[in-house]
Amino acid sequence: MLSISFDLLLLLLASGALAGILAGMFGIGGGLLLVPILAMAATAAGMDSASTMQVAVATAMASILLTSLGSMLAHHRRGAVRWRFLLRYAPAVMLGAWLGALQVEHVAGWLDGRLLIYVFVVFAVLSALQLMRRKTDIAVAPMPQAFTFRSLPDLPVALLIGQLSAWLGIGGGSMNAPYFHFRGLPMRTAVGTAAACGYPLALAASIGFALHHIEHSTWPLLGAVFWPGALLLGGMGMFTASLGARLAHSLPELLLKRLFALLLLGLALRLLWL
């Protein structure tokens, strides 16, 4: 019989709710928040260090299947998703994510899980610094009609973002949204398109993580995915993503980004002490 402690249940529900809000605000999947929380919970449950980050990354990615769905629908209702572009961009992201998910199992085994921790910490710190420096506001702007998929540079970038996202357990929005904005989309549309891209990315990566094999775990796992946790996290995230999308249209972007940057720095610092 499956049993989850009351403390873990509250942690998963609260984390999923916050991840959903962040997903709606920034088009991310919430993995930047969820991976260190899941890693700490797995460590407290007695999981060995080689499996801790593997399970944390896989579970966060599986939860994004639900969280990104809520975020995607919220942004679609506001007309902020470029679907025609995604039809060509998403397959490359999915391929990269699937390959990245398969690679994580071997990397975690080689380096006792520490490489994934260091990769996440470095990425979180760099993302926080970028958010602290960025001072542009989210503003409504005309959508450029010339924004179309280009094999170069979009194909290699999509493959790379998919692979890195699977390594980190994220939906790719923290990389896709800046890239789409750099390619010419208004920031809101870039965020919405990145949010929609998180679903196919998470789907491909979750299939790869389901093929992993974890031994001696007290948690019920599907491959490397702690599936009850993924359902709780993703369910709450899907519910609160629409609130995040509304906040993105009402609160000052600079304040939100700086608060998120401080959160990232705190999580990265805590993760180093696992």
Properties at a glance:
274 residues, two-stranded antiparallel sheet, 10 helices, globular
Describe the structure.
The chain has 274 residues and is mainly alpha-helical. It has one domain. Helices cover 74% and strands 1% of the residues. It has helices at 6-26, 31-44, 49-77, 83-110, 114-133, 151-168, 173-182, 187-209, 227-248, 253-271, and strands at residues 221-222, 225-226. Strands 1-2 form a two-stranded antiparallel ribbon. Strand 1 and strand 2 form a beta hairpin. Helix 1 (6-26) runs parallel beside helix 9 (227-248), helix 3 runs antiparallel to helix 4 (83-110) and helix 7 (173-182) packs antiparallel against helix 8. The longest helix is centred in the first third of the chain and has 29 residues, at 49-77.
The number of distinct helices, counting runs of at least 4 residues, comes to 10
Q: Give the total of beta strands.
A: 2
**How many angstroms separate the termini?**
29 Å
Name the helicity range: over 70%
| Number of separate structural domains | 1
The shape, in one word, is globular
Major sheet attributes: 2 strands, antiparallel
Order of helices and strands: HHHHHHHHEEHH
What's the mean pLDDT score?
83
Q: Which consecutive residue ranges, at least 5 long each, have pLDDT under 50?
A: 136-144
Spatially, the strands of the biggest sheet line up as: 1-2
Computed CA radius of gyration, to the nearest angstrom: 17 Å
SS-derived structural category: mainly alpha
Strand content: under 5%
